[in-house]
Design brief:
The protein is of the alpha/beta class. About 35% of the residues lie in helices and about 15% in strands.
C-alpha cells in the first residue's frame, strides 16, 4: 500500500513545487509590468523583484528581508517638483494593508531602513525623499514649489501613487491604509490629518514637530545667548547636576519614587537652589548658568499670535548641549531662517532676534510646514483615528508642544469627550526624542492603531518597556493624556501590570 501511494505523494509535491514556481513567475511578471504603469503626476523608475535577504544598499545590510517587488517613482505635481519615492510590495502573505513612513529633520532620502519592519509584517510600505536630496533646507532657496513639496505635498502624492500601484499589483483590494512617523515624520502625520483627512484610515504621530517655526526660534534663542556668553554655558557635569536636582525635586509628584519625573509639566523645580554661594565651583552653578537653565525651561510668547513657544522640561537635561538645545535642533533652526525665511546663504545666528524673527518665520511659512490647525473635524468625520505620543524628557522637540496642541483641540471641540473616540495622546515619562531615555521607551503604536481602526478597540493604555543590554528591566502603561499611570500599591514598580491609568 505504501509503495502505491508514493507516486501520488511525489505528484502532489511536484504540483506544490510547480505552483510555487508559477506564483513566483506571476509575481515577477506583474512586478516588471508596473514599469509601464501610467501615473497622473509621474513615472515609474524601478520595478524589480528583490529576493529574500538580497536587499543590501550602501546604507547597510538589512538582513533577512522577505522577497518583495521594489517600485520606485518620480512625481512631478509642479514644474519644479522632483519627488522620489519607493513602495515595497510583499510578494507573499500581503496583509491587505498599506503603511507610509515619515522622515526626520529636513530628510532628503528614501528611508529604506524604515520599510523593513512593516514589509516583514506583511504591509505594502512606502517612503519619500520629500522632493530633494540632502538633510538641509538649501533646496528651498529660490524654489517655493519644493518647499511646498517638503511641507505637505510629497506625502500626499506618495499616498495617491502608492494606492495606484497597489491596485495594479494585487488582485485583492486594499483594506486599510496607515501613516506612522516621529519628529519631522510626526509633523508630516499631523499635516496629513489636517490637510488630507481621507488619505489614511489611521495615523501615528510621534513627537510631532508641529510648531516647526516655533522650535526653530526657541533653539536659536538659547544658542544666540550662549554663543556670546561662555560663562553661561552648561557643561556635561553641570547638566548632570541640574538633572539630578530636578529628579530629586519632582520624582515623587506622581506618587511614586522611581527615578522618573512623571509630571514634568507640573514640576516647580527652581534651579536657583543650585546657585553657588561663594566662588567655589563644586556642585553648584554660577548665576549666569542658573539663568540659562531658566531660559531653556521658559516658554516665551509669540508677540503676534499669543502662542507660547514651548521650552524644554525638567528631566530632559541629559540631552542638552553646551549651546542649549540639541545640535540637530540648532541646525534645522539655522537652516529654517537662512534658506526658508530670509533666503540668504550668509545669514547667521548672530543676526537672530526672537521678538521679530519668530513673527517673520510664521508669516513666511503661511501654514506650509507648521501643522498647528486644531480643527480635525474632517479627519474624525471620515472615521480616522489618531494616536500621538511624546517623551516627557525629549530634548529635541518640547513635549509641551504635544500637550499644548491637545489642549487647543479640546478648546476647539469643547471637551475631551467630543473627540476621545478618534484622537488620543500618550506621554511617556523618562523617554527622550522618539526613543531612548531612562524610562520605558519602546512600544508598538501601530498594532494599537490597527486594533482601534479595524476592531474599534480604542487603546485604554499602551504598554512600553525599557531594555538594558537587550533585556527588559522595566515596563509601564502609557495612558491617554491627561491620565497618568498610578501604582496600585502592590507588586514590582517595574511591571506594567501593577499600574492603572487614572485622571490626574
Amino acid at each position: 500500500m505504501i509503495s502505491q501511494k508514493l507516486p501520488v505523494i511525489y505528484a502532489a509535491l511536484a504540483l506544490l513545487g510547480c505552483s510555487s514556481f508559477v506564483l513566483g513567475q506571476q509575481s515577477t511578471q506583474k512586478c516588471q509590468d508596473l514599469a509601464s504603469l501610467n501615473l497622473s503626476n509621474g513615472d515609474i523608475t524601478i520595478a524589480e523583484i528583490v529576493g529574500e535577504g538580497e536587499f543590501d544598499e550602501a546604507r547597510g545590510n538589512f538582513g533577512s528581508v522577505p522577497e518583495f517587488c521594489r517600485v520606485g517613482a518620480t512625481m512631478s505635481p509642479s514644474t519644479d517638483s522632483d519627488i522620489k519615492m519607493e513602495l515595497w510590495l510583499p510578494t507573499q502573505n500581503w496583509n491587505g494593508k498599506y503603511v507610509a513612513v515619515g522622515n526626520g529633520a529636513f530628510t532628503g532620502n528614501v528611508r529604506h531602513s524604515a520599510l523593513v519592519q512593516p514589509l516583514s509584517r506583511g504591509y505594502a510600505a512606502s517612503s519619500t525623499d520629500t522632493g530633494h536630496l540632502g538633510n538641509t533646507a538649501s533646496f528651498g532657496l529660490g524654489h517655493p514649489e519644493k518647499v511646498i513639496d517638503f511641507g505637505w505635498r510629497s506625502v500626499h502624492e506618495m499616498n495617491v501613487t502608492s494606492k495606484r500601484i497597489i491596485a495594479a499589483f494585487y488582485d485583492d483590494e486594499l483594506r486599510y491604509s496607515y501613516f506612522t512617523g516621529c519628529s519631522a515624520g510626526g509633523r508630516q502625520a499631523m499635516k496629513e490629518a489636517q490637510r488630507f483627512p481621507t488619505d489614511f484610515d489611521g495615523i501615528v504621530a510621534g513627537a510631532p514637530g508641529a510648531d516647526w517655526t516655533g522650535r526653530a526660534a526657541a533653539s536659536l534663542r538659547i544658542a544666540t545667548h550662549l554663543r556670546g556668553n561662555v560663562s553661561a554655558r552648561l557643561l556635561e557635569a553641570d547638566r548632570e547636576l541640574v538633572y539630578s536636582a530636578a529628579v530629586e525635586a519632582c520624582d515623587a509628584n506622581d506618587g511614586l519614587v522611581d527615578g522618573l519625573i512623571g509630571k514634568p509639566d507640573q514640576c516647580d523645580f527652581d534651579p536657583t537652589v543650585l546657585q553657588c554661594s561663594s566662588n567655589t565651583r563644586a556642585q553648584c552653578l554660577r548665576p549666569e548658568q542658573v539663568n540659562t537653565v531658566k531660559m531653556i525651561y521658559d516658554s516665551p510668547v509669540n508677540p503676534v499670535t499669543g502662542r507660547a513657544i514651548t521650552g524644554l522640561l525638567p528631566g530632559s537635561e541629559m540631552g542638552w548641549t553646551d549651546l542649549g538645545w540639541t545640535q540637530s535642533a540648532r541646525a534645522t533652526g539655522l537652516d529654517q531662517y537662512r534658506y526658508l525665511v530670509y533666503g540668504d546663504e550668509g545669514w547667521n545666528i548672530d543676526q537672530f532676534d526672537f521678538e521679530t524673527d519668530i513673527v517673520k518665520a510664521e508669516q513666511t511659512d503661511n501654514d506650509t510646514l507648521n501643522a498647528l490647525d486644531p480643527d480635525l473635524s474632517e479627519f474624525f468625520g471620515s472615521g480616522g483615528k489618531l494616536i500621538s505620543y511624546h517623551g516627557w524628557s525629549d530634548p529635541q522637540i518640547s513635549p509641551a508642544n504635544a500637550t499644548q496642541y491637545y489642549e487647543r483641540v479640546v478648546q476647539t471641540f469643547g471637551s475631551r469627550e467630543a473627540f476621545h473616540d478618534s484622537y488620543r495622546l500618550f506621554m511617556a515619562p523618562g523617554m527622550g526624542h522618539c526613543a531612548g531615555g531612562p524610562g520605558p521607551n519602546s512600544f508598538d503604536s501601530l498594532s494599537a492603531l490597527e486594533a482601534w481602526v479595524e476592531q474599534d478597540d480604542a487603546p485604554e493604555s499602551i504598554t512600553a518597556v525599557h531594555r538594558e543590554n537587550g533585556e527588559v528591566d522595566r515596563s509601564r502603561p502609557l495612558c491617554p493624556y491627561p491620565e497618568v499611570a498610578a501604582y496600585t500599591g502592590s507588586g514590582s514598580i517595574d511591571e506594567a501590570e501593577n499600574f492603572v491609568c487614572r485622571a490626574p
